[in-house]
Amino acid sequence: MQSAVLSQPPAGVHRGRPGRPGRSGALSGFGVDVLPRAARPRPAPSSWAQEGPESTRLPTTHAADAPNRLWSWDISWLPGPACGAWSYLYLIVDVFSRKIVGHEVYEAETGALASELTEKAYWSEHLASKDKPLILHSDNGGP
What we know:
- By secondary structure, the protein is an alpha+beta fold.
- It has a domain at 70-138.
- The protein has two helices and six strands, in the order E-E-H-E-E-E-H-E.
- It has helices at 47-51, 111-124; strands at 14-15, 32-33, 70-79, 86-94, 100-106, 135-138.
- Strands 5-4-3-6 form a four-stranded mixed beta sheet, covered by helices on one side. It has a two-stranded antiparallel ribbon with strand order 1-2.
- It is globular, with a radius of gyration of 23 Å.
- The two termini are 44 Å apart.
């Protein structure tokens, strides 16, 4: 087996420090970082993706052209003090300004708590006097 000494790393690969924390990849422990996700070439679509059923749902587009027109919300799990104990972070963000307009931590995940937080955020942002509708976006449990 031949070994070559490279004075420069191969195209598309930059040098890193060995054992750099927070880096993952096959070459991270050897002092070479792999390409960032945005710079990697995209793989060709697989055959199963082309054979899937066509979606009948029309794509929706929401434009955040001003503050308090489009909000996005999500619930995240927070580990508790004991093993197996969880708290839930409810978070509402204004998409235009990226301002956190509402947040709460609860011990349960219920629709009533989500509704209560949404109403609190609505009143704290003084939206009752606005004539434009507010769109509340959710990922519906997606990763």
